[in-house]
Amino acid sequence: MLRVEGLKTYFHTYEGTVRALENIDFKVRAGEVVGLVGETGCGKSVTALSILRLIPSPPGNIEGGRVFLDEPEEVYTLRAEYDRIAFERLRRKGASRNISSLQAKEVLQPEIKLLQSKLQASNSEKEKADLKLRLQAATSEYDILQKSMEDIQRIRGAKISMIFQEPMTALNPVFTVGNQIAEMLILHRKMDLCQSALKALDLQMAVRAKKIRGKRLTAAQGRTAFLAGRDLDGLPKEERAIHDRLQEMKDDDCVCSVCWSSASILWDCCPACGARLTFDLLAPFRGGIMSLEKRLYSRVLKDPQDQLVDFVNSMPIFRRLVHTRLENEGSHWAVNSLREVEISEPERIAGQYPFELSGGMRQRAMIAMMMACNPELLIADEPTTALDVTVEAQILKLMKNLQAKTNMAILLITHDLGIVAEICDKVSVMYAGNIVEFGTTEQVFHRMLHPYTKGLMRSIPRFKAASSQERKKDLPVIPGTVPNLLYPPSGCRFHPRCPMASPLCSEANPELKEIEPGHFVACYTHVLRGEAPP
Amino acid sequence: MTNTPVSAAQDSEEVILAAKDVKKHFPLRGGVLRTVKGHVMAVDGVSFQLRRGETLAIVGESGCGKSTLARVLLRLLEPSAGKVFFMGSDLTALKPSLVREKRKHLQMVFQDPMSSLNPRMTVKNIIAEPLVLHPEPAVRPATIAVLATLTFLYGLFSAFAGLAVLLFPSASGYFVTVPSGAASIIGLFLAVYGVLEMAGARGLWRVRTWAWWLLVVQYAGALALWFLLSNPILIGASAVLLICLVYERKKFASGKDVRDRVLELIELVGLKKEHLNRFPHEFSGGQRQRINIARALTLNPDLIILDEPTSALDVSVQAQILNLLMSLQKKLGLTYLFITHDLSTVYHIADRVAVMYAGKIVELGETEEIFSNPLHPYTKALISAAPVADPRVKAKRIILEGEVPSPTHPPSGCRFHPRCWLAFEPCLSVEPVLFDTGNGRLVACFASARDLGREATGGPGASRRKAGIR
Has residue A101 got a pLDDT over 80? Predict the structure, then answer.
């Protein structure tokens, strides 16, 4: 689903170029949890930010590499051919292996032109489809690094969303949680929101046609007023639905007699019709406003970039007329998504500001926000680092449950190997901007091959699997410190700290090699010996 | 609790630090008149004893009062109630100046290594600062006391003589003989000299190095003056004082001593000589924490309170710091109070563990016993919730509902009961107190008391009796 190839990010600072990422290769399949482990400053977060193109630039710059999102399998197989040609030509020019799609397109220009002309000339549908696929492969169509900023913004949040480490800084302190989730929904799921807003409008207009005055009622009063001697079986379909909704509510819930929906939750106005219940100045104009709204929403549904809607949105008062309903509908959904992340009393929480929530709650709200748009990939950047153990366990359980329910993929960035072992299917271990080992959790934790992974694993104090003799003994440590990426060591970046380093290691940087199926290691000791893992 | 066998501290049973029912309530003010509307019960009745040479870990979630407890123990915060005994004396009853004296033996390492180092001081100055604040030797040798008294008298005499020469030039011969032409200049000089001398005497009384330098210069000047004026008695007096002062030189902390101590410390914590003139921002997190540890060690403390020393560090660096702490403990015989939320480091480094929940200790005992057989349900949940770095271990986790209760309105009865799956009738209303399950193991839980066939008690009086705290 996500395929990162040769990603390379540099930061150009006054002191020199920080080579933050070098040759990052990994893939995330749909429904998979992939962990990205490493120490501080090894480039875990930079990887995530590069994928989303959130690297602050300047000083940051994605120098090369491609990130494919949702590339169909056929295109991938076709692309392998073209890539080989591109590599061949680039090597002649002396370029490195992390090509960007821009470079690839440049060197593949003759092929692309040929394909385009063939596409124009061909007549049969089947041939056309095949040619299109080939063209997509040659131009690296699915590379999100070459997309325009607008396209990227449509991907962010909708297809790939990200949870940050510190929810307090990621959430906006001056808006309520519900508002923020609603904003996200309006941005990315406007169509769905419009549809449900239209549905609510229809309902409301139907009721309005019956000339019931809008005033505040409790649900109990609403029920009697609504039936008012009518026979339940004789009600039309839409009114039947309203009746059912009323039955679901608690007796002292507040409802609006215009639309009969729950009004107690967030505001003093009805969430479905937006009418201020206590004092509605616009009451005489509601009918007109509603028909205007209906027209606008149906226009949005036909064409999201509708000129008229944009025009209305650009004028403050009218914008309010149109947007209130969308916002209210979004808040409804927000409450639902908060309920999904197992927050108790989601209605109350939705109306609170981030600072009123505890750390665990904030992180849940953050997850709710990110899950609201049903992303295909969730990038979780140290989601539980700021949390306590018991809350961490809750959040991890929640993430696992959500993942099982929606079958989304998760890219989990963390430095806590315990969490990785707990929920990840695959792990890639990063060191100083390189991926040094990649494999299933089982492979990396029990048949680790890279000396860095070994050192890392040994240096964790354990208490569950360990015997009591190991207590109070010195922990085996990796000597030295993480290198300064302004001046990374030549060759393998781990070689100055590596107990198994050979002269070759200081000369060339090893590439990831598949040692056993699905287990990749970037280390000469294993590649050269060609040995199978123990 | 004195009959408890403690593996690491068996050789000495001396209690170095004892907390007795320590409470810290922060008042919450509100309204126009800023009246007290309630209290945040950060620490609410904590008692424990720490023996020389052992490591006691305090574990708990954030907001349970661990760090407040550490600050109260050091008396950086005034406790609302309770007592803290450090090496036999009650810290809570001492005057602030005496507490500062005690803190030489009681140091602290803070969680965030960057924010606890002054960014504008070099490493050398950071590590030497405790020596500047607590100059050694703290106890004044008798010789220096005599010297200071004599200097003071000498200064007093000079000042008076100067004044006399200035005001009554005719009568000046009574004190010293001066040439009549230069009387006013010499009088002024003598007066200033005398005042400086008295200031120097005060510094000498406090064994300050600057006083030593001041007086050496002054005595040399005086010697020269009296030589010129050929006053044999005062020549003799100045010469004797100067010689005494030079003889006592090594009683004062010299720049070289400080430098030697700093070098010794920097090697002890595994840093290099060339790091001395750098600033904190030039170091990585692990090195910064080493600087912090070196600073805490400067005055040869007996007890170090470590407040989450490795929480901000990476795994591999954390291992280095833990190794360093353990080797320092072996080398210097330190006692640690280790505050953390990370159970794996606790298991690795601690002799005994105290588990805190919402301002109270709920369980206290030897590390191995606590980890192999946790009695309090909260401890059980905490231990099972910690993720293990092994995909094959698929432990059945106890996942607690809810969050740490608000410290302003703690739940009635046992503070853990709203999240506890074992809670039964007494937990809701009666607050359980620590009771001894034998072997020095203390638990505050009705459910585990029932399981052990013990009668659990409630109420503050019973807690002290049962916990065996005098």
Answer: no
B238 compared with A167, residue with greater pLDDT:
B238
Given B341, B345, B387, which is nearest A418 (Cβ)? B387
Distance from the B343 Cα atom to the nearest Cα atom in chain A, whole angstroms: 8
Distance in Å, alpha carbon of A94 to nearest chain B alpha carbon: 37
Under an 8 A CB cutoff, do A477 and B387 touch?
Answer: no
What's the pLDDT at A39? Answer: 83
Q: Is residue B294 part of a domain?
A: no
Could you tell me if B152 and B51 lie in one domain?
Answer: no
Is the pLDDT reported for residue B439 higher than 80? Answer: no
Measured between CA atoms, how close is B303 to chain A, in angstroms?
18
Query: Which of B319, B346, B381 is nearest residue A390 as measured by Cβ atoms?
Result: B381
pLDDT 10s digits, A290-328: 788 888 888 888 877 777 777 877 887 777 766 777 787
Number of domains in chain A: 2
The predicted structure's pLDDT at residue A251: 66
CA distance B386 to chain A (A): 6
The bridge status of strand B352-357 relative to strand B55-59 is parallel
CB contact under 8 A, A461 and B371: no
pTM of the predicted protein model: 0.75
Q: How does DSSP assign A312-362, residue by residue?
A: HHTSHHHHHHHHHHHHHHHHHHHHHHHHHTT-SSHHHHHTS-GGGS-HHHH
- In percent, the amount of chain A with pLDDT more than 90 equals 3
The end-to-end CA distance of chain A, in Å, is 31
Nearest CA in chain A to B343: A463
Domain for residue B5, yes or no? Answer: no
Domain that holds residue B108: 15-119+301-467
Task: Give me the domain span that covers residue A496.
Answer: 431-529
Nearest CA in chain A to B389: A418
Question: Which residue from A391, A441, A464 is facing B388, i.e. has the nearest CB?
Answer: A464
**Of B41, B84, B83, nearest in space to B63 by CA:** B41
User: Residue B325: closest CA among chain A residues belongs to which residue?
Assistant: A474
Cβ of B344 within 8 Å of Cβ of A446? The answer is no
Cβ contact, residue pair B387, A446, below 8 Å: no
Token pair recorded at residue A75: 């295109």
**Neighbour-count burial for A65-97, b at 16+ CB within 10 Å, e otherwise:** bbbbbebeeebeebbeebbeebeeebeeeeeee
Q: How many domains does chain B have?
A: 2
Q: Are residues A325 and A435 in the same domain?
A: no
State which of A340, A371, A389 marks the end of a domain.
A340
* Interface ipTM above 0.90: no
Tokens of A245: 């909704």
CATH number at B400 reads: 3.40.50.300
Residues A336 and A435 grouped into a single domain: no
Judging by DSSP bridges, how do beta strands A409-414 and A33-37 pair with one another? parallel
- Tell whether A6 is covered by a domain: no
Same domain assignment for residues A201 and A314: yes
Token pair, residue A494, equals: 């781990």
Give the pLDDT of residue B152.
Answer: 92
pLDDT number for residue B132: 77
Beta bridge partners of B24: B43
**According to the model, what pLDDT value does residue B55 have?**
93
Structure tokens at B318: 């954390």
Element (H, E) at B346: helix B343-349
- Phi, psi angles (nearest 5°) of residue B31: 80, 180
**Are residues A451 and A333 part of one domain?**
no
**Across the strands, what pairs with A434?**
A431
The values of phi and psi at residue B285, to 5°, are -55, -45
Q: Which of B352, B353, B388, B404 to mutate to test the interface with A (most CBs of A within 10 A)?
A: B388
Clarify whether residues B340 and B463 are in a common domain: yes
Residue B327 banded pLDDT, cuts 50, 70, 90: very high
The verdict on A188 and A306 lying in the same domain is yes
